[in-house]
Design a protein that fits this description.
391 residues; mainly beta; 29 strands
Length: 391
């Protein structure tokens, strides 16, 4: 029997400091690294005035987990490889391998599937991507988008004469990530008619992400240009395309350089020791995070869009005292949680994390996870959904 664990985490520090030194520690961190951005119009972050936090830091000091939710597991709800998760209307919509789009409620109980895999008139032969708004669920399949209501009834089709890898519905228009065309970003109306095309095709732009268009606050949708510093931004209010950068500094790779290095791990940092590339872009309605990689140095940038504040952390210095697995759980690019960040871990990963951190077994968050796992089949259960925000 699955149970939703509402977790109200306190800052359980792994660093053995007195109360006075903890207070001073966080004051120094916040003073030196949490800086109001005087960003230029074309950069998300002005990194010239931000000092990266490099001292060892427990994740619980700046991240709050709101809920951990085991997803119901039975023959109907069993998921394969997780490819994309969205939270909308207090429901989790999950794309996984070799099955139709699965829907779970906020307690983790399985509700229904949206449509079915198949070749029938209201089915889809393959689930390439999906999107959800307040009323409808949109399924991208070969040569069309199927539109369903929340109960899974098909209500409309949008024909597509393009090879589309990803999409995003925005008001009365749809942004498409297109392969095999002269341009990779298309803007169409709800009848499938092309309104505008952007970005000439090049190798770096073939890098397919589970979520092609990432929100930036309430004003923009972002389409990264490979691993480069450049971003194509769609201004939602003005219905126009603009150009943005991740950072304002100049030692970031260009789209041209990214074209020749499709795999981030193959960038020759010996020849280009100061080149910085980008990955891991994800967001909520008010916060945006992304990673920058420079040699073996990885920086996690956290932007509070509403307050225009940015904090930067050395990824290697982060201590995962929330899931006891790895800091990687913070940067799942295939999730969109609306007003929260979403991540997920399988029970066996959580169990392994607890085994490796037995010395912390008296911590409150350790006990939460331990109790949750007692009710799960560790090897066979669906993943545990994690909702979190940056404090």
């Amino acid at each position: 029997m699955n149970k939703t664990f509402l977790i109200k985490w306190n800052c359980c520090s792994l660093i053995s400091l007195s109360k006075q030194s903890i207070g001073m520690f966080f004051f120094i961190c916040l003073f030196s690294a949490c800086v109001k951005n005087t960003t230029t119009n074309d950069s998300i972050v002005n990194d010239s005035d931000i000092e990266v936090i490099t001292s060892k830091l427990p994740i619980s000091s700046f991240v709050k987990i709101k809920r951990m939710i085991p997803l119901e597991t039975n023959n109907t709800s069993l998921l394969g490889n997780i490819e994309k998760i969205m939270k909308r209307n207090d429901r989790y919509f999950i794309k996984s391998s070799n099955r139709s789009l699965a829907v779970f409620d906020q307690s983790g109980m399985y509700l229904n599937a949206i449509g079915n895999l198949g070749n029938g008139p209201e089915e889809y032969p393959t689930l390439l991507d999906f999107d959800v708004d307040s009323e409808f669920v949109y399924i991208l399949t070969t040569n069309r988008i199927n539109i369903y209501n929340q109960q899974g009834k098909c209500v409309k089709f949008i024909p597509l004469l393009l090879n589309v890898a990803g999409f995003k519905v925005v008001k009365d228009k749809i942004l498409l990530f297109v392969l095999g065309d002269s341009h990779v970003v298309h803007l169409i109306d709800l009848d499938g008619v092309t309104i505008e095309k952007k970005l000439s095709r090049d190798p770096a732009l073939r890098l397919t992400k589970a979520i092609s268009f990432v929100r930036y606050g309430n004003d923009y949708l972002l389409f990264p240009k490979g691993h480069s510093n450049d971003i194509l931004a769609y201004n939602i209010a003005k219905s126009k395309f603009e150009n943005l950068n991740y950072l304002s500094s100049s030692n970031n790779i260009s789209p041209e350089y990214s074209n020749n290095t499709l795999d981030a791990n193959k960038i020759d940092h010996e020849d280009e020791p100061n080149k910085r590339l980008f990955d891991g872009l994800t967001s909520t309605s008010s916060q945006t995070i992304f990673g920058s990689i420079e040699g073996d140095k990885i920086i996690l940038w956290v932007k509070d869009v509403a307050k225009n504040l940015t904090t930067a952390y050395s990824f290697a210095a982060l201590i995962d005292d929330l899931t006891y697995t790895s800091s990687d759980f913070l940067v799942k690019e295939n999730t969109d949680g609306g007003d929260v960040f979403l991540s997920y871990l399988f029970p066996y990963s959580l169990e392994d994390g607890l085994k490796k951190n037995q010395k912390l077994s008296e911590n409150e968050n350790f006990k939460f996870i331990e109790a949750m796992l007692e009710n799960l089949d560790i090897e066979e259960s669906n993943p545990v959904i994690i909702e979190y925000i940056f404090k």
